[in-house]
Design a protein that fits this description.
alpha+beta; Lipocalin; 2 domains; 20-stranded antiparallel β-sheet; 43% strand; elongated
Length: 377
Amino acid sequence: MAGFFYSKRNIFLLILSAFFLLALFSCKKNEKNPAEVVSLSEDNNSDEELYIFYSPAEDDASWVEELLMRLEEERIAQELADMETSFSEYQLEEEAGEAGDEAGESLEEALESQAGEGRAFTGKNDQMRFFEYKNETLSPQFTDEGLVVIHSADENVMRFFYDSEYRLTKKEEWKIRSASDAKKLKTELFVYSPESRKVINKEIITEAFDELISYNEKSSPLFSKKYAFNDDRKYIVQERKWKYNSENQLLEDLQKEYSYKDSNYNKPEIFTKRYEYSYPYVKSAGDANESNNIIPPDYKFYENDILKMQNIYSAEKGTYISWVYFDENLSVKTYYEEEVRVRDEYYNQGRLFRTKIYKKNPPEAEEEKLIHKGGEE
């Protein structure tokens, strides 16, 4: 019996020792290493330094509107640049403008001047057959209908057809790599007014498109229709109309783009872009001495009849206001002085809620944001 109690006492001591060791191990585990404490303190300092640069609590998401504004400005600016560039492509070239004796004289003078620069080859009666200049050749051919001038430079060949009055009636663009590899890329046809003797219609024909263009009496484009070809079908892909004032200044440029989801090309989806101009401060373009001081025209840009952007210029060059409209609620009004952005105003449903002011003379420029609480004007 004494052995039994002795054995139980040993077991009790072992269990008590085990609890003691477990408690000691737990205490050591909870003690912090001084190096770890320093490391944690440094991490906290790092976070504090981070918040000096950026504080989530102070983030009012104003950068979102600014980013959207910049992206929309760039997109619209590209749309406007594309429309302006394409408008210049509709302008008539000099050889298709005037007609009559003056056109004939200018053509002969051009041939003589080009022959003087290069090497001319003549035939009977000293009539020029062709001439060479570097890698280019020019060959005039007189026909019963008038004159054909062939201009070639390497693989690129142009053929100009003139009638008996030296009016350009047709122009062809070719790519000729060899006698068996020749392809006509484009044909342009010109129709003249009997009264003004100027081009009133022009047709551009390529392998993929056929475009018809009409012009006013001042040789500015009035209307165009562009058709595409696919599966032996011809369907419209673009329409464009221009309006001018009495001084032949552009007032409106309307473009309609047609897209089709069905293979029959019956129900197109139409996307419109419209450019409107006004000229409150524009000086006469004919005043060459003041060409650098011409104030641009005010303009408005619409997409599907929704105003997306407008610029309003002052009488002082480089000073103007630009509006960008994101939707029916958000818009940004930007002020420029000497072509430099000086202030942005953000509006929500017509109420001013934020202003951003830019100081001039970068790189020392600074920015100041003003928050208009309650949508104050």
